[in-house]
Design goal:
heterodimer; A: alpha/beta; Rossmann fold; 2 domains; 8-stranded mixed beta sheet; 7 helices; B: mainly alpha; Non-ribosomal Peptide Synthetase Peptidyl Carrier Protein, Chain A
């Protein structure tokens, strides 16, 4: 059964989708995770990954594994200022979602599945939560500076394809961001027709009108426009200092590091992350599935190889 | 990094794989225009940049990116050779 709820988190209303099967594995096999919590990416990657992550949640429910997905505060159908999304805030939001999952299922042991930056957030939460038994990291970022670099590069490429770049204006800018595409207001880069979060609440999943979302108020200064998504200086700073490879806290969970790419071998960055995690996790399984990196796809993608690999590993 | 047939072959393999082009790497011409002839869009260009990092260890700086550089295998190979790495 698929239901939706809002819970209060950090002074906002956080959206959760609950996929609770009528009969769960955990009622019969106590080594199964009581609930799976999915941590999504943010920014443009969340828009592209939304449908595949819903498919993943439904696939888990079909395997009788309860599952919770959610929108970070300031994104998707949650309230909040999208320009104030930070790594630390995302971590708090995942913790809140995990607690709600426990309350909803009555079982403390959980599995976390994170995609891209959501994977990194899941790994951070797993460090101080011994009841996280399984941790699936799908295409984790690993090093935040890579993510920042990729954000800037994507903006650069898109800007170069949509209008001539005025190089003289780049130097001295806070983040050296390129000019936003011509269809975006220059002062912010956000699409005025969109509401809060990834694509706005009004146009998403045909759920307009289900929740009266307050008018968005931007409270954070924007350092970078990422395909229309405002990224604050604090988020940039947190990402620049984020490095899963250099962390030392132990993780009690068994970890799956999963790459999604054109080759069946994990990439060098994922292999390096898996090696680093082996020193501090219960166990680490690093592998790759041949599938399209759906979080960057422009059109609809059905990454069933990836979904199958994750559900098989959890089940 | 020198502009060799081996480098060009690796670039073609990278481009065809990352962009899931319906062709064999060797069928991609050195002078083929990636955007005009093969429909490579901004996401595709981004994946080539990511692939250069992951497959060849080449990190393209934000200020180094130029559409012309990524317009063909010819141009890309020449650019990588000019970096002298």
């Amino acid at each position: 059964m698929e239901t939706y709820e809002y819970i209060p988190v950090r002074g906002e209303r956080m959206f959760l989708g609950l996929h609770i099967p009528d009969e769960t594995h955990s009622s019969r096999l106590d080594w199964k995770p009581g609930c799976v919590v999915i941590a999504s990416p943010v920014h443009e990657e969340k828009k592209s990954a939304h449908r595949p992550l819903v498919d993943l949640a439904r696939a888990l429910e079909a395997r009788r594994l309860p599952c919770v997905r959610f929108d970070y505060v300031g994104t998707g159908d949650s309230t909040g200022d999208p320009s104030s999304v930070t790594l630390s805030g995302m971590t708090d939001d995942l913790r809140a979602a995990v607690q709600h999952a426990r309350d909803a299922t009555g079982v403390s042991n959980v599995a976390l599945v994170g995609l891209r930056l959501g994977a990194d957030v899941a790994a951070l939460v797993a460090e101080d939560d011994s009841d996280v038994r399984l941790l699936a990291l799908v295409a984790p970022v690993g090093q935040g500076r890579r993510y920042v670099r990729d954000m800037r590069m994507r903006s650069r490429i898109r800007g170069a394809m949509t209008e001539p770049v005025d190089r003289s204006s780049e130097h001295g800018d806070v983040a050296a961001a390129p000019s936003p595409p011509s269809h975006l207001p220059r002062e912010m880069g956000a699409r005025p027709e969109e509401g809060p979060g990834e694509g706005g609440a009004s146009g998403r999943r045909g759920e307009a009108g289900r929740l009266a979302v307050p008018a968005m108020t931007r409270t954070a200064t924007v350092a970078l426009d990422y395909d229309g998504h405002p990224v604050s200086p604090r988020m940039i700073a947190e990402l620049e200092s984020h490095d899963l490879l250099s962390r030392t806290a132990s993780i009690g969970a068994s970890v799956l590091c999963l790459d999604v790419r054109a080759k069946p071998q994990p990439s060098a960055p994922l292999t390096a992350l898996a090696d680093a995690l082996r020193t501090r996790a219960a166990s680490v399984d690093a592998r790759a599935v041949v599938d399209e990196p759906f979080w960057n796809a422009l059109g609809p993608v059905e990454p069933w190889e990836c979904i199958g690999a994750v559900t098989d590993w959890l089940d | 990094m020198q502009d060799t047939p081996e480098l060009r072959a690796r670039l073609k393999e990278l481009i065809v794989e990352r962009l899931a082009l319906s062709m064999k790497p060797e069928e991609l011409g050195d002078a083929d225009r990636l955007m005009e002839d093969h429909g490579v869009d901004s996401v595709g260009l981004f994946w080539i940049v990511v692939g250069l990092d992951e497959e060849l260890g080449v990190q393209i700086g934000e200020d180094e990116f130029d559409l012309d550089t990524f317009s063909s295998v010819d141009k890309l190979a020449g650019f990588l050779a000019s970096r002298g790495e």
